[in-house]
Amino acid sequence: MEGESPYASVSSAPAWRGLLARGALLSACATRLAQLYDLSFAYASVLGALNDLAKAAGAARAAASDGVAVSDAAYRWGGAISEWLDSPDTTAVDERLLLEEALALSATAESVDPFRTLFAAVGELAVGVYGDRWPSPVLRLNDLPAHPRNPPDHYAITAKTTPTDPPAVTLMVHPTGFGPASFAAVPCLLAHECICHVPAKQDRVKNDSRFAEGLMDWTASYVFDASVAHILPDLSEAAKAHSGAFRELFATATTPEGRARRFGHIAANHLVVLTMDDLDVSQAEAERIVARVARDLNCVQAPIDKKDLLTAKLLGLSEPTPLLSDVLKGVRPAADLL
Ligand SMILES: [Zn+2]
Asked: How far is the CA of 200 from the centre of ligand 1 (A)?
């Protein structure tokens, strides 16, 4: 019925409308999100315009329908940008150009669930990787009362995958911090969930798994970087710019999860070197082979501890064992991505 949130997991209908409006405005500006983020550190007008976007989305919480929420927010934000353009202090060429572009883009905001759109695009990527082994997960959305990390960063998002049937990916958003950087990092975050966890066949969830959070994260990054321009052409510039910074948050963490991520990436890169040597192939081809091996291992039903042990053993190899060499030669190319 009209007035409800499409996500049972969002705390209230007004909370959904606020998130929808915010996401719709950011989505409309997809091609300029990287610049909106960067120039907000250079110009008070751009920072002010982003604060006005948040205010416009906040006002949309009271709207009677999703369509009104987005059109009201776009109208309010457009008015606010116009005021910044009218200010005698808004004089720099790049500042004015960006605000003029944002003004034009704000008018194109549509009442379409931006989270579902991003999830569908990443799902397309995952189908290309897993083919008929892709289990078509459902998306859940949560509005977080606080930033997911402490100290807070520019990425007010996190996610988790629940191994139900079908699997559920929950995207968690802290609305107050959900700006250009957060929006641009959502595809990278969803790609981690979809490539590492959604099709995973293992006995339990293990947050510090060297395989699931390390070797598979390397694979997710490989696939995402190779495909983002294809699956999200408008957002790809900002998504590329922010995926690196977003991944750094995890790769530099001194937690067990951070160590697992680094270990798995090192193991993957070591296997790339072994593969280049063993099969006499280029680095690019070796990376593709390693990504295929990781993907196939992810689909094998086995205890996660065994997959972790295998990941650890990779680092101890100075050359592939005969069995591993056969695996590297024989991995099944799937669909069009790997
Ligand atoms: Zn994970």
From this structure: 11
CA of 328 to the centre of ligand 1 (A): 25
How many beta carbons lie within 10 A of that of residue 91, not counting itself? Answer: 10
Question: In 3D, which of 86, 120, 123, 102 has the Cα closest to residue 27?
Answer: 102
Q: What is the pTM of this model?
A: 0.95
Amino acid identity at 63: A
Q: How far is the CA of 192 from the centre of ligand 1 (A)?
A: 6
Tell me whether strands 168-173 and 157-162 are parallel, antiparallel or unpaired: antiparallel
Domain ranges (residues) in the chain? 13-112, 115-330
pLDDT in tens, 109-163: 999 999 999 999 999 999 999 999 999 999 999 999 999 998 899 999 999 999 9
Assigned token pair, 312: 């650890």
Distance 196 CA to ligand 1 centre (A): 6
Residue-wise pLDDT for 227-248, tens only, equals: 999 999 999 999 999 999 999 9
Residue with tokens 């550190």: 41
